[in-house]
Amino acid sequence: MTDPRTQAQRIHRMRLHRLRLPARAVHSHGVGDVGVVETILLELTDDEGRTGWGEASPWAVFTGTIEANLAALHIHMRERILGADASATEAMLADFDRTVMHCSEAKAALETAMLDLLGQRAGLSIGQLLGGCCHAEIPLSFSVANPDFAADLDTVAALFADGVRLFKMKTGFADHAFDAMRLEKLRGVYGDALDLRIDYNQGMRAHEAIPRLRDLERFRPTFFEQPVPRTNLEAMAAITQAIDTPILADESVFNPREALVGAQMRIADLFSLKIMKSGGMRRALEVAAIARAAGIGVYGGCMFETGIAHAAGAHLMAAIPDLTLGCEFYMSTYYLAEDILADPFPVRAGKVIVPQGPGLGVTVDRARLARYTVETLG
Ligand code: MG
């Protein structure tokens, strides 16, 4: 008798949901403000009726556009995805790379939905498919990014009461005095009970960076993230050389190729991993492998996402043994007015609890999905 597990798991149906989800507050960054989260959910159904979910969450000033990612999946890839074997992830991603340039968010969505289907069929979580779960829980970092700092102080107090201890101050969207004032306030209120990090999101010009970072070192940040524009690798390297506090590269390192160049040029002490930058979990593991070989640490980043992409990110980070700086999957719990998962994305006592069920290990609430859907394709 044929073992059903050796037979192909065909993708039978594909549907795209374009969502607009309100946030609780505006978040400001060195490259722009966000108050509404626009994202794409990819829903795949296999020929035995299982549903696999993936998410593409582009941010135009950072990774790419909603429109390009929708078109990549709906126009350019639909015929290649329908009928394909859900277990052939790597071949599908290679085909996607040959068919559409860029659109790493759409590639992450397709990989996630395929691994969700495969994991459900195999009875294994995506983390197990990626090599096994090294961390059952991961410390959560929240980004302090509200231009209304008084409101942010209330948010920090509420999250501190919830057990969150990692806080990342977004800087460089106003002047240096505003950044120093906010850091002084947080250290003054919480002392060393907070693990403080600082993220410029490319918000400084190269000639401004070193004196400002030297000034902010008095607040004892764990790292400075992406102080200058992503393509200015020479300035990133010079800053890493000049500043004692570790420098983290986010926008400068999207994919394995950029990780290799970044490691060779020593543009940072740390790299941020995000499935939306790398084009999925497996490519992010490749970035992590290059970082490990170069003695560069890694951090679990995210974009403006629902619990679907957070779950994929959590499985990825859980599969990385040397992840020591925590992760930032706080959007669905502390940023969105409401997520689309049936059960809240699991955050307890300041830690993300890595989903354990088969596949992604999360369920979409159809009523909430409908509430925030502005367009459905397929
Ligand atoms: Mg960043």
Task: Explain the overall architecture.
It is a single chain. The protein has 378 residues and is α/β, with parallel strands linked by helices. It has 2 domains: 4-123 and 366-377, 2-Layer Sandwich (Enolase-like, domain 1), CATH 3.30.390.10; 128-353, Alpha-Beta Barrel (TIM Barrel), CATH 3.20.20.120. Helices cover 40% and strands 21% of the residues. The chain has helices at residues 66-81, 89-99, 104-122, 126-129, 149-161, 176-190, 206-216, 233-242, 256-265, 275-278, 281-294, 307-318, 331-335, 366-372, and strands at 11-29, 32-46, 51-56, 137-139, 141-144, 166-170, 195-199, 224-225, 247-249, 270-273, 297-300, 347-348, 351-353, 373-377. Strands 5-6-7-8-9-10-11 form a 7-stranded parallel sheet. The protein has a 4-stranded antiparallel sheet with strand order 3-2-1-14, sandwiched between helices. It has a 3-stranded antiparallel sheet with strand order 4-13-12, covered by helices on one side. The mean pLDDT is 96. The structure holds magnesium ion (MG).
